[in-house]
TrEMBL record, chains A, B, C, D:
It is a multi-pass membrane protein. This is hydroxymethylglutaryl-CoA reductase (NADPH). GO terms for molecular function: hydroxymethylglutaryl-CoA reductase (NADPH) activity. Belongs to the HMG-CoA reductase family. Its main location: endoplasmic reticulum. Pathway: Metabolic intermediate biosynthesis; (R)-mevalonate biosynthesis; (R)-mevalonate from acetyl-CoA: step 3/3. GO terms for cellular component: endoplasmic reticulum membrane; peroxisomal membrane. Pfam families: HMG-CoA_red. Keywords: Endoplasmic reticulum, Isoprene biosynthesis, Membrane, NADP, Oxidoreductase. GO terms for biological process: coenzyme A metabolic process; isoprenoid biosynthetic process; sterol biosynthetic process. It is found in: Endoplasmic reticulum membrane. It comes from Gossypium arboreum (Tree cotton).
Amino acid sequence: MSRAPCVRFGNAKRAADLKLYLEDPDNFETLSVVFNRSSRFGRLQGIKCAIAGKNLYIRFTCSTGDAMGMNMVSKGVQNVLDFLQTDFPDMDVIGISGNYCSDKKPAAVNWIEGRGKSVVCEATIKGDVVRKVLKTSVESLVELNMLKNLTGSAMAGALGGFNAHASNIVAAIYIATGQDPAQNVESSHCITMMEAINDGKDLHVSVTMPSIEVGTVGGGTQLASQSACLNLLGVKGASKETPGANSRMLAAIVASAVLAGELSLMSAIAAGQLVKSHMKYNRSTKDVSKASS
Amino acid sequence: MSRAPCVRFGNAKRAADLKLYLEDPDNFETLSVVFNRSSRFGRLQGIKCAIAGKNLYIRFTCSTGDAMGMNMVSKGVQNVLDFLQTDFPDMDVIGISGNYCSDKKPAAVNWIEGRGKSVVCEATIKGDVVRKVLKTSVESLVELNMLKNLTGSAMAGALGGFNAHASNIVAAIYIATGQDPAQNVESSHCITMMEAINDGKDLHVSVTMPSIEVGTVGGGTQLASQSACLNLLGVKGASKETPGANSRMLAAIVASAVLAGELSLMSAIAAGQLVKSHMKYNRSTKDVSKASS
Amino acid sequence: MSRAPCVRFGNAKRAADLKLYLEDPDNFETLSVVFNRSSRFGRLQGIKCAIAGKNLYIRFTCSTGDAMGMNMVSKGVQNVLDFLQTDFPDMDVIGISGNYCSDKKPAAVNWIEGRGKSVVCEATIKGDVVRKVLKTSVESLVELNMLKNLTGSAMAGALGGFNAHASNIVAAIYIATGQDPAQNVESSHCITMMEAINDGKDLHVSVTMPSIEVGTVGGGTQLASQSACLNLLGVKGASKETPGANSRMLAAIVASAVLAGELSLMSAIAAGQLVKSHMKYNRSTKDVSKASS
Amino acid sequence: MSRAPCVRFGNAKRAADLKLYLEDPDNFETLSVVFNRSSRFGRLQGIKCAIAGKNLYIRFTCSTGDAMGMNMVSKGVQNVLDFLQTDFPDMDVIGISGNYCSDKKPAAVNWIEGRGKSVVCEATIKGDVVRKVLKTSVESLVELNMLKNLTGSAMAGALGGFNAHASNIVAAIYIATGQDPAQNVESSHCITMMEAINDGKDLHVSVTMPSIEVGTVGGGTQLASQSACLNLLGVKGASKETPGANSRMLAAIVASAVLAGELSLMSAIAAGQLVKSHMKYNRSTKDVSKASS
């Protein structure tokens, strides 16, 4: 997880001084000790700086055990800022978050650097299954993926949006398992790839998602329904053997559900079924008085 | 609301032929009649094309009454595609959605062209209020906005993410009122501006949100709790006097809540209170067994 | 060609008033007369507004005959701003260029809306030629294009950069023909598509370039060498029969040269020849004392 | 300088294996030895990987002495790919450049990671000078910068284009000193900041340019005029004392010229002089027959 405060100096030279100090491997241990003081699980992993004139944006990344970890990282960052004030008394802390983090906004820094968990999920789908179950062909899916998810998104000026509907699945799981649904903005960054393999007979499909922000402790994970859902998935609470294992597994579950969702929607579109399916399963044409949501 | 199918021809010349046909004002009436056939409320508003070689992406936009309108526009698009097949028999429909729409993905086309409702919300905050209630100063807020929401987001390579946390508010309202929370990806596109006015004494704050996708009929708006929330806000169901008035009002409510959220968080950051507030109100330190969410 | 001044009002309401006025089709004729006053060739084509709070960005587009036309459009915009001051006396002109134009910067608005000339150029290359001349295969080129120009650029967070090296060709022609080489930033926006046709035997290749900014009169086109180059290409000066025909032809020449360049470099990469070719033709290993460039 | 080949495996698992191998600090020395073999100056600095399903994009960065270094880095990359083939025989090299480099395309990876030299240049301009020489005020410049270079570019969906006209200066110097003018696409990435200091009396201005790609040896630097220009600037050829010092100095010269250009144009716009200046100095109204360009 990452957090990036913005600090300002009297001139760019001083901002660069701090940048060099922070990026010097010799100082990393000291900074880690300071950062890690506030939490049992938060462990500083890296520091990446961006300068804009005399303003410095410092992106701290840390491991967070099984928590999503925004508060953990914010506290660690506050520790480091307090510590730096001694050696850099002319440092003016503009804000603990300077939007270079970048939380709940579509931003290239997350797409390039990752945030939360970075997951790749893949599957091979036999040509037979594509035809009989998905009612389309390997060739059609590969072509649709190239023209919709790659080219169409390129034409639309997409940022990390090279997929059909990752956001649907991410939003649903986030609500069900007590994640922060406002984070699906970047958590649903995804590139879906479909390639013909085995001489064109079978389909290789994958989703690559660099910034899935999830936790299995803290926040909404403690609510009754949400906790039950996590339990159902076998990832409730903190992993005792390997801290972080539960939240990593949850991220893998998110990605695999997205992969299934991509296969399903892409097949429906390739088969020309999208409109018909929406009409058939549309909530508004049903009696929803008993639906739980 | 918009939907953009992808169609393909044997060559770019033919794709350009269709583009010219679709963008010719003389054909708009005919296309409207065909498009509007499927719905009482969906009314074709515009057609914008993008070519990538021999592939054409056709972004249809239509008014949708008080519904969010994705299904409505999809059906209208299907009508037009069926109609075009007569005059363009060599047109190969690759998919009813070609990602140039662009639904549930961060994409410049929504930021530039808008999608759903485009709303600007503004307020003037007296300097007194900024000091006494928000515990900060006009000058600090203006500076923080410039360095965080504008410069920080620019450094992060943001797309439509020039705000502090619009997504938090959008996600919350969308869940509460039965909207599609997966659409908060682009619905939370927002640029927050803060400028000193009246000789620096007072604060002018605004949020500009070009793609708020909401409806007050259909979908999740019919669920019991969600329906109650819409009722509470006075925007439940279809407006009988002015179709679309309820959904437009809901979009305005979203934007004004975002404005309030921006003021609040920005003030907390400017006052250096962010970490402390999160610790104080953190759900995990409370007894949440009775919380409803 | 486009130019977008930034104007500011006391509140967003007033900025919206001007937006509605400018986008009202009934006012277009009046605005055109005012705009067109300053030039024989500049003809207002459209007005597109973007609001950010109480600030309005007004993107004027106009045809410019055979000139690239930046000065022409700037003068027309100045006319309109002067004219508007009467009805909108509270309008504060912040700058004649508000970066929503957008000139010499990579910006989605040019990729989505176009600037200068928008050109698609296509070719069918026989499989035989691909093998014998380009020393590669249709399949390899299609795959390389998908993985490099589409997927690789998507991973890199590209904006309008879905090509191999359009900028090389654009820069070279711009210098040779007296264009503004600083404009190759957006003039080289390009998506290159390669698709197998005729049952996979042949290659369909295209380049789509939405914002080629060129002119055949004015600026550097009058210099001796540059003028000679334009003459050689048959597009020197203003077309007498059809104003704009020469500059449109020059844009088509740029795109077709880019297509040739894409085919050449992509083939070299597919054949694994890139490094070897650069070593062989590298200027630094040759006697360049007599080279003219 | 950076170069990023694209390689493909049979599945994502294997692509991840190579990613882990390449990012393991224990392997860096071996890889460096292999990479550095081809050149006296090229020294591997870092490796950054991006996965898209079973395809891996490997961005190698290396120092290049006083050369711009594209060929140097390409050769080093080729060495590493040949070397890896032994341990990863199932690795399929799709292309030596996979567009994740990213050369001559606007791409977030350069804006976030840098390419070539990353430079910040700053200056303090006394209020007196702003008034008397630049004919405007500190307040106007600060405001114009906020509304044009930050907000206007944000509205336009800019990527690294938060400046007024960096590209003009970069293009001019690149042509004059024998650089590759096609690289001004990313070399002109720039964020211009203007802030009032000393209680609003004076102006602090800076330009931050993360990807200036220049060299003082090789390529066009050997041509007569270009070589003379480099000599004039005192940065001709390779620095004997400190390899790379000349090219770093040239990058600093580029940035400082951009800073001067920003000050000049921004002042002209703030003073409402842009159109008038262009009319006055327009080449087309002069006798240019003797102009050298």
